[in-house]
Amino acid sequence: MSELLQAVLDSEERSDLRQFFSEIRHQDKKYLLRNDILMSYVEYCNKYQKSAEFYSGSHLGKLIYYTQEIILENGNLCLIIRQKIASQEFYRITEDLMIEVLTIQELLDVRDRFVNRYHPNEGDILELDFGPFYDYTPTIRDPKNIGKGVQYLNRYLSSKLFQDPRQWLESMFNFLQVHQYDGIQLLINGRIKSHQQLSDQIKRAIAFVGDRPSEEPYENFKFDLQMMGFEPGWGNTAGRVQDTLSILDELIDSPDPQTLEAFISRIPMIFKIALVSSHGWFGQEGVLGRPDTGGQVVYILDQVKSLEKQLQEDTTLAGLDGMNVKPKVVILTRLIPNSDGTLCNQRLEKVYGTENAWILRVPLREFNPKLTQNWISRFELWPYLETFAIDAEKELLAELHGKPDLIIGNYSDGNLVAFLLSRRMKITQCNIAHALEKSKYLFSNLYWQDLEDKYHFSLQFTADLIAMNAANFVISSTYQEIVGTRDSVGQYESYKSFTMPDLYHVVSGVELFSPKFNVVPPGVNESYYFPYSRMEDRIQSDRERVEDLLFTLDDPVQAYGKLDDPSKRPIFSVARLDRIKNLTGLAECFGKSEALQEHCNLILIAGKLRVEESEDNEEKDEIVKLYSIIDQYNLHGKIRWLGVRLPKSASGEVYRVIADRHGIFVQPALFEAFGLTVLEAMISGLPTFATQFGGPLEIIQDKVNGFYINPTHLEETADKILDFVTKCEQNPNYWYEISTRGIDRVYSTYTWKIHTTRLLSLARIYGFWNFISKENREDLLRYLEALFYLIYRPRAQQLLEQHMHR
Ligand code: UDP
Ligand code: LCN
After folding, report:
1. Which residue owns the Cα nearest ligand 1 atom 6?
2. Which ligand is nearest to the CA of 677?
3. Ligand 2 pocket, 295 CB below 6 A?
4. What is the mean pLDDT of residues 257-282?
5. pTM for the whole thing?
6. Is 375 helix (H, G, I), strand (E, B) or coil?
C-alpha cells in the first residue's frame, strides 16, 4: 500500500483524513480532479483552522498533493495517487477507513459506473493491453532517464552485443554491406569477404590514408581505396576518411557505446525523408491561423529546411558529392482543390530557401466532393486516411525515385498515415505529436460518446494508440510531454490506462519507460527571429512600418484601439484567438491591475478583429469576449488589438520593436504543449512571462531567463509583471540581464541545428539497432493491425457514411 496513505492511517492524522473525506462526501461534485481536491483541502484547513505547517507538511497534506483524482461511489472514495512520475496506485476507502487496493481493471469499472456505462451482464468489454509486447524489450528503470531513450538503448544493447565479439563483428560486417544510394554501393564492396578480412583491411586503409595530406580530397585516392574494398561514404578528405576508419577500428578492438554512437552517426544511410502532415492546409503563405495549423506548420517548415541542410552537410562530409547524391525531403500533405487563394491546391511546391525540399500534395479521394474539395477539420479527417496513404505511397515512390529512408509523422492523423506507410514500405517510423488532444480536453475519453459527433475521439485515440506503439521512435519537445511533472500527468502518460466506455478499456496503452521516447526540442528560425540588438541585420524601413502598425496606425481594418501614451512600456502577446491560448485572460489580468495600466500598454496580435471574419465558434466567442473585457475594464487608450496575421519577416521585427522599447512578452495559455512564440520572443531579447502549464516550464528557468505565470491567477500574474516592471524602472540593468539570459538560453538549447543533428543521429541509431538485433516486433505490429482493421476502420466507415449525406 502507498506509504503515504499508511503513514496517515498510522498517525493521529487519521481523524483528519476521516473528517476531510466526510467533507468531500457532502460536496455536490462526485468526480474530483486535482484542482478540485486541492481546493477542498484548502477549505478544510481553513474551516478547521489548521496550521500552515499542517497544510503542506503533514502526511495528509502530502497525500493530497499527490492525489490526482477522487471518485465517489456509494459513500466510498476511490483515490488515484501518483506519488512517483509515471506510476499510479488506486485505492478504495470506505467511511470507516477500510482500505482496498484496486486493480486497473477495477478502477476502469468504477469510472464506467460513474457515467452509467457499466454492463457486466452483457459480457466483458474489450481490454487493450500492450504490456506483454514490451516484456521482452529493454525498459528504462529510473523515471528521470525517460526521454533519453537512445543513450539507454545504446548502452543496453552494446553491452549485450559486445559480450560475443565474433557475433558482434559479424553483425557489423553485415550492416556495412547493405548501404546503397540509388543502386550504387557505399562503404564496402565484395573484395572484403569476411569480418576478419574487414578488420585487416581497415588497418591497411588507415595506414594508406595516414600517409596522405589530411586535406587531400577523396576523389584523388578513391580508386586505391576501392581496390582495398572500400567504397564512397567514409569521408571527403584523407583526414576525414582516416578519422572514420579509426573510429571503426577502435570499435572493433574495444567496443563501447559512445564510440558506437559516434560511428553510426557518420554512416550515410539517410538521403530521403518523408514528413507527413496529412490534415493539411499546409503551405508557406497565408495558411497560419486556421484552428488546426499554426505552430505545426511553422515547426515542420523550419525543420525541413534544417534537415535538408544537415543532410547536405553529412553527404559532403561523407565524400558523396562526386556521386551526385542529392538528399531530398518531402512534406506529404493533402491537396485541397478549393484553397482560398493559397497554394494548397498545387501538387508540388518547393520549400523556399532549399535545393531539394518539397511540399507534395495528394488529394483525398472524392467521396463527397462537397467536403473533399474543401478544407476539413482534423477532427473529421479520419475516414480518408487509409486511402490517402495508399495514394500517397505511389506519389512518394515516384517523387523520391524509391522509398524514403525515414518517415516522420506529425500529429495524430499524420502519425497514423506514417504507420500505414512505414508498414507497407518497411521503413523506420518516427512520431511527433505536437499536442495530444486527450489531455487537452477534460474527460475526453470518459464522455467520448457525448463528444463523438463533434470530435470523434474514438478514432483519434485509437489512432494514437496504434501510431505511438508502432513507431520505432518518438520525438517529444519536452520531458513533460511524455510523463508530466511531479504534480501533473504527461500527454503520453494519459494513454497509459483509460476507459472508452462501451468501446474498450486500455489497461496498458503505452510503455512510458520504453527507450523509444526521446526529448528533442525544436528550434527557432534564426533568419527571421534574432536579437533586437543586431541592428546591422534590421531594415530601418521595416522597423518604422512595424512601429507605426503596433503603436499608432489609425486603420480600423487592421487595428483596434488608440493609445493615449504610445511611449509606455509595451506588454505584448501574439496567438490565435483560441480559448486555450487565453489572450482574453491576459486582457483581463491587465484590466484588473490599474497599477500595471499606469506603467504599460497592452499590445495584442490576434488574427482577427471581427466576428464576421471567423468561421470558428471558439474564435468568435473569444472576439466577443475581448471586446467586452476592454469595455468592462475601460481599457480604451491603453490597449491595441491588431487583427493581422503577419508574414514571418514582419513578425520577427514585431518582437524586436517591442524589445527596442524594453517591453515584455506574455504567453498566457491555459495549456501550451510547447510554445514556439516563447522561443521567438526570447531570442529577440524580450523578457518573457509564460504559462507554467506545459512546455514553457522547461524552456524557461524561472527568474533566471524568464518567468512562470499561472494564467488562472490573474491578480498574481499582474503583480509578477508589475514587480518586474518596477524593478526595471529602478534599475534598467535588470531588463538587460533577463533579456540577455533569454537570448543565451535559446542559442544554447533551442536551435534547429541541435534538433536535426540529434534527430538524424537517432534515425541512424534506431535503424542500426533494428538491423542488428533483428528486433522482432511483428507480433506487436499484427496486434496493431488488428486494432486498425477491427476498431478503427469500421468506425471510420461509419463517419464516412455520415459525410456522404452531408
Ligand atoms: N503566428 C503567426 N501569426 C499569428 C499567430 C501566430 O505568425 O498571428 C506564429 C507564431 O509566430 C508561431 C506559431 O504561429 O511561430 C504559433 O506556434 P505556437 O507553438 O506558439 O502555438 P500553436 O499555434 O502551434 O498552438
Ligand atoms: C502545437 C502546439 O500546440 C504548440 O505548443 C507547439 O509549439 C507547436 O505545435 C509546434 O510543435
Report:
1. 575
2. 1
3. yes
4. 94
5. 0.95
6. coil
